[in-house]
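In this section we walk through a basic example: taking a raw amino acid sequence and producing a predicted 3D structure, encoded as discrete structure tokens. The instruction is simple. Fold the sequence below.
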Amino acid sequence: MKRKILIVELWGLGDLTFSTPVIAAALEHDDVHLLGKAHAKPLLEPTFPALQFITFDAPWTAYTGKYKLWKWNFTALIALISKLRREKYDLAVSARNDPRDHLFMWLIGAKKRIGFAQRPLFNLFDISRALLTSRLDRIKPKQHKVEDWRQLGGEMALPGAATGEPRLDHTRYRSERTDQLFAHVTKPVLCLHTGARIAVRRWPEIYYAHIIAQLRAHFDFHLVIIPEPLTLPSSLAELADTYLVELTISDLVSVLGRTDLLLCNDSGPGHIAASCGRPVISIFGPSDPDWFRPWGSEHRIILRDICPWRPCFDYCKFSEPYCMTKLIPDTVWPEIRQQMTSLIDAGHLPAALAKNAAQPAGAGV
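The resulting token sequence is shown next.
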């Protein structure tokens, strides 16, 4: 019989792409609802039109102030719980080992509740065990979020999820605006996205300017730059062939799905590009790539353990994120060049990107 399933994914764009193997497998046979932030629907609906969306910005997902309970909108929260209880879900699932998610799934009355174990409180109270009907332990101590969803898919009896890959069908996001952007581009497209939701994940823009200069000297491409939204005008605008602002999420997926290579920080756009089958070079700082890297073998993570407190998972204890600010362009550039050359040689990037091909590999570094 068709089950009614609630997938709880209350976090960012990248987290939503990680859940798509389970979404795709569940939609084959079940009635699937997704509880997520407002950006979930424009990100996922074109690829998964049968998926039903419930919008909720959970107060426990805030970057700061999440434990100031007096600021929570309990009226809205109670109304949502009441609404979802009427749906009578057969199954609810969350990839977070977060007892707040588990409590929420219990409160809405889902018959089966699947999630990962949370460390017992003070080694005495195992809250998750009381709230979940299927309490899982991760197979590996450090397990990528895609592997989390695959494991959950197995527990949900979704065979296709066990080997599923994150995917977005970027052809379904095309618009007149994005078609016009690419209409007269004849060179391979390299996209630089300088943003990240959390400021400490952003590599300094001046460093990216140095990398662009090196890229121009060694490769031939059309450069699309997408800055961090809602910040001051980017100092890189004059270095771009196309400079894009005020993109909708749909536009962002369309652009990233049509670029040949994305250079970015540890951010949602990297996961979107990877889920569209585009290679990504991502600069990591405070988080752990074992859990959050772009999924796939053709991607490259650039990372140095400069700070002894890394990974701090965005809660930097210093006045600046040294794991990013001390990661200088001269250190980063050789890895970028090597990865691009390898991708060209393997046929994952257009041969037309190559410039001064006869030049020794170390020249100009």
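Looking at the output, two observations stand out. Confidence is low (pLDDT under 50) at residues 357-365. The chain has two domains: 4-162, 170-353. In the next section we compare this with other chains.
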